[in-house]
TrEMBL record:
PANTHER family in the cross-refs: BINDING OXIDOREDUCTASE, PUTATIVE (AFU_ORTHOLOGUE AFUA_1G17690)-RELATED, FAD-BINDING PCMH-TYPE DOMAIN-CONTAINING PROTEIN
Native organism: Rhizophagus irregularis
Names of the cofactor(s): FAD
Amino-acid biosynthesis keyword on record: no
Record keywords: FAD, Flavoprotein, Oxidoreductase
Annotated Pfam families: BBE, FAD_binding_4
Protein name: FAD-binding domain-containing protein
GO MF terms held by the record: FAD binding; oxidoreductase activity
Every FAD-binding PCMH-type domain range: 50-220
Phylogenetic placement of the source organism: Eukaryota, Fungi, Fungi incertae sedis, Mucoromycota, Glomeromycotina
InterPro entries: BBE, FAD-bd_PCMH, FAD-bd_PCMH-like_sf, FAD-bd_PCMH_sub1, FAD-bd_PCMH_sub2, FAD-linked_Oxidoreductase, Oxid_FAD_bind_N
Keyword Ligase recorded: no
Family in the record: Belongs to the oxygen-dependent FAD-linked oxidoreductase family.
Length: 475
């Protein structure tokens, strides 16, 4: 089946464009073109390689702005993108010459403490959700970097430090208000528009623009976090100690195991983020005593802190700018020989290509029991099993290296794929172009048995594939 070719702003009647711009109150909602102040900022993204020169950017400030923009894009069959945190590296929240709905001004968050619900507009960042909820001693499941958008992260699955205890972000979505391709505003929940509610929890970017999410909030105390670095010679003993910890771990603790280079000398290093969901340092020391048996860390910082600060600890390695891509693998065990092979590959590659020095491999050892306790067909998110997520973060400077770095990322992915069933997490299969998503086999590795049902729903709610960015389902 073929779908209508997407048009650019320059392809449509300029009078139509002018009329569309004039339909907004310019004092409230900005509609920006290349010549306008604020345009460059509005197309900035986390990774430089995902910046595209949009024909028009609408900085939505209310629900009606979303409806108008969706209707305009649909009627004119425009290349259309939605941007929240702008963290996708493939450019899936950008458009070269088309129309972008920038959601960042829709970032209000409010908390209903009685019902323990968080209402967050679809342009908010997880840091904004964390801070508002924390005022009431509450938190929901977000990602581990505060400037990630709730839009993309929540719609693809979402995991973070609280996943072992409370599940995925999608498991904590209690409702949402979305605008579908036909311009309809629909409220979704377990008993309203159930099939769309099912679909947005794992495959959301295919079905509409989320104006507002409703998240379940949980009681949250202060926490203790340890940042430890060990020299490369300790790799084997650090993996062994981590595996011993894994055998007895609880749901209130986590380790993120990172292979990177430590500035300023940039020596290969093993970095561990130890998270204890308890305010006591004594409890922290007890939980992670086995890790300290590896020997003297070259760096150690243990701190009690409010929960929102936890998601700011990786700021240095996750800042804006330069070229970046993210690939992932899901493994069912923490295998020393794969970690060693990936480590050697990382060291050789970054020795050979110093401009990729600040790439890193992060192994997130979440406890998947909570994720696995929910059947795979109860939300669109499919890989409901015990798994550890490996994120291969590629960072470099020049376009010339795009393919070289991507091929290295694929190589590391294939090392870890031997320890899993090749399922993929849609939010971490984000490379420098959207090309990767054109492979249907890969999409089946993301949505598994839910893929056919998602195709049916796409046929029903977005038959002309208006939402055509990122991992697109073509019905
Ligand atoms: C530094 C960093 C840290 C990360 N950490 C984690 C983590 O801890 N856990 C995790 O699960 N993932 C994590 N990710 C992956 C992350 O989930 C994805 O990159 C996600 O797409 C980011 O969402 P965004 O809104 O920032 O991105 P954007 O680029 O703005 O959007 C990504 C996609 O979502 C769509 N979208 C955005 N907002 C909306 C909306 N309101 N309605 C409809 N569609 C929308 C866009 O159209 C686009 O297709 C991380 C990524 C980065 C770069």
């Amino acid at each position: 089946m073929s779908y209508p070719q997407k048009k650019l702003i320059k392809d449509i009647d300029p009078n139509e464009v002018q009329k569309f711009k004039e339909s907004f109150d310019n004092n409230i909602t900005k509609v920006l073109t290349e010549v306008d102040e604020g345009y460059e900022e509005s197309i900035t993204r986390w990774a430089d390689n995902s910046i595209r020169k949009a024909g028009i950017v609408v900085q939505a400030t209310c629900l009606d702005d979303i409806v108008k923009t969706v209707n305009f894009a649909n009627k004119n069959n425009l290349d259309f993108a939605v941007c929240c945190g702008g963290h996708s590296t493939s450019g899936s929240s950008s458009s070269e010459g088309g129309i972008v709905l920038n959601m960042r001004k829709l970032n209000k968050v409010r908390v209903d403490t009685g019902k323990k619900l968080i209402y967050a507009q679809g342009g908010a960042l997880f840091g904004e959700v964390d801070s508002e909820a924390w005022k009431y001693g509450l938190a929901t499941v977000g990602g581990i970097v505060h400037h990630t958008g709730i839009g993309g992260l929540s719609l693809g699955g979402g995991f973070g430090y609280l996943t072992s205890k409370h599940g995925l972000t999608v498991d904590n979505i209690m409702g949402a208000t979305i605008v579908t391709a036909d311009g309809e505003v629909r409220e979704l929940s377990a008993n309203k528009n159930e099939e769309l509610f099912w679909a947005i929890r794992g495959c959301g970017i295919n079905f509409g623009v989320v104006y507002e999410f409703i998240f379940k909030a949980h009681e949250q105390k202060e926490i203790v976090v340890g940042l430890l670095a060990f020299p490369a010679e300790k790799l084997d003993s650090a993996v062994e100690a981590t595996n011993t910890w894994l055998r007895n771990r609880g749901i209130d603790e986590n380790i993120t195991f990172i292979i990177n280079r430590l500035p300023p000398e940039n020596k290969p290093t093993i970095k561990l983020v130890l998270f204890s969901n308890d305010p006591s340092e004594q409890v922290f020391r007890k939980k992670f005593s086995i890790i300290y048996e590896c020997g003297e860390p070259i760096f150690e910082k243990v701190e009690r802190m409010p929960y929102p600060k936890l998601n700011m600890l990786l700021d240095e390695s996750s800042n804006y700018g330069i070229r970046k891509a993210v690939l992932s693998a899901q493994v069912d065990h923490f295998n020393i020989s794969s970690v060693r092979e990936a480590y050697d590959s990382f060291v050789n590659f970054t020795n050979e290509h110093p401009e990729a020095t600040y790439s890193f491999i992060a192994i997130d050892l979440i406890d998947g029991k909570k994720i696995a306790s929910i059947p795979s067909d109860s939300t669109a998110f499919h890989p409901r099993k015990q798994f550890y997520n490996i994120a291969i973060i590629q960072r470099w400077n020049t376009k010339h290296y795009d393919k070289i770095v991507y091929n290295w990322g694929k190589n590391v992915q294939s090392i870890f794929n031997k320890d899993g069933d090749k399922s993929l997490y849609v939010n971490f299969m984000d490379t420098t172009t959207e090309h990767v998503y054109k492979n249907e086999e890969m999409l089946k590795n993301v949505w598994g048995k839910n893929y056919e049902k998602l195709k049916e729903l796409k046929r029903k709610y977005d038959p002309n594939v208006l939402f055509r960015k990122g991992a697109v389902i073509f019905p």
